[in-house]
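Changelog entry: the Purple acid phosphatase record was regenerated in this release. Current contents:
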Amino acid sequence: MAAPAAAGDLRFLLVGVLVVVVVGSRLVRRADGGGIPTTLDGPFEPATRAFDRALRQGSDDVPLTDPRLAPRARPPAPEQIALAASSDATSVWVSWVTGEAQVGSHLNPLDPSTVRSEVWYSERPSPTAAAAGDVSGHYPHVARGKAEVYSQLYPYPGLLNYTSGAIHHVRLRGLKPATRYYYRCGDSSVSGGAGLSGELSFETLPSSAAAAAYPRRVAVVGDLGLTGNSTSTVEQLARNDPSLVVVVGDMTYANQYRTTGGRGVPCFSCSFPDAPLRESYQPRWDGWGRFMEPLTSRIPMMVIEGNHEIEPQGQGGAVTFASYLARFAVPSEESGSNTKFYYSFNAGGAQYSWLEKDLRKIDRRVTPWVVAAWHPPWYNSYSSHYQEFECMRQAMEGLLYQHGVDIVFSGHVHAYERMNRVFNYTLDPCGPVYITIGDGGNIEKIDIDHADDPGKCPGPGDNHPEFGGVCHLNFTSGPAKGKFCWEKQPEWSAFRESSFGHGILEVVNSTYALWTWHRNQDAYGEDSVGDQIYIVRQPDKCLLQTTRCPSLVSNSGYGAHKDIIRSGHLIWNASLAIWMILISTIFIKGNSCSRF
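Regenerated structure tokens:
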């Protein structure tokens, strides 16, 4: 079923040229010539593209000596330049690093107040004469911000401490939506322009006031890391020319780099049961920022934290998330939040919201699409992380279903999986489409075992979250009734494949969005489009519930706790208005939309 033509001035391009649908274990062209499949053609029979075990499951980390990870400028000039969306299309954050980081035992942190944080910008490119440092005559606008320095410190002998360069964050305001701007960042007081970057440019997102104005393409990637596979993912993602990038957690895998010898392990506590804490290697963050700069200096990148961003330090790991909190600018203050773990932004739509209270305020006539994302998946048929965040699902799934969330993105599992529309482990035409996209290419390699494979069903001692309780359950109905794992691919799992890649979401209109998953691996000799489908909303059939949440499955499994964890997650509503909500660990007793 082909997508209808969209009315109005749509600000994106459709790239779906290969007509595909999942049949059995491979992608084939539709025999009826009906075009790209849609969710209206579902639910689909579960399909798995099996991993060729003769292939390597991953690749090594790129060494910091690689030229792509080398500083792109020498102090005092800026490096690791990155953009982030602000609360709406009239504002953008610009971040960068100056000075040199230090690693060792005796460190002297830089004083960030000695360096200016400035962004000079214009709607027109400047002549080459501006390179000499005369920015005031060529850029009519300047915005100023502030800088900070963070440290990663360990009280244990032999562990390397770290203190960062000066990390600058500046917010540009009063911009025109859907407009290209040219900018230089840094410190204009340094003679000869040595403290400024070269000229870069970006295009602001469309306005919420514009009819049918959507970001052209939203790239979604998770569990990226900095391996050979990671670089392939980013290079292919950049070729797809997105207007916004969303990273659903686990960015650098610096958090246990030293302890694991730079090799990575899927289960740290299993491999290092006596380690007092994980020793990170913070220069990996600097290398990651340098590698990403050609992309992030021209396209906004929004991030959420994953478990690899925890990075405990100090006695007993009392301090966490230091790097994540310092390195990334997020629109927390402008979206009414008092912490970087809760923030929202508007990327061409009506309004942003916060969970239950503000979900009720969304006018679906103006903001038709509501998309959610967080790091750990609720629906996952792989052995890795199977039912790990079941507590979170039980606490929140009813709320999202009540308000008609359309799509959910997650990472954490290092593979790709797209679900049929589902609610409470039951096929439901009004449930969200859950997509696991944790296949960015990290050092821990691809996940290949499924919970329904013989002998691969996890036990009660497996897959415990790093924070919060355990709510593992046995299914109470359906083909897996009374069991912890299915004996075949679950009916709610439409397609799964163990390959590295990334996804692109293109909102066509108020009811159609094209989702394309691009695999990196070309060993199969086929097109890199691994999965493609139109996700179709049916607002006339799936009416929003205004009074109460549906009941969830009762927890009859082992190890059940009534304490519920809500872990870091982002929710974005698309018209395309996007809200990012990064919720730190919260424990609640019960929930109006769950039953135990």
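The chain has six helices and 32 strands.
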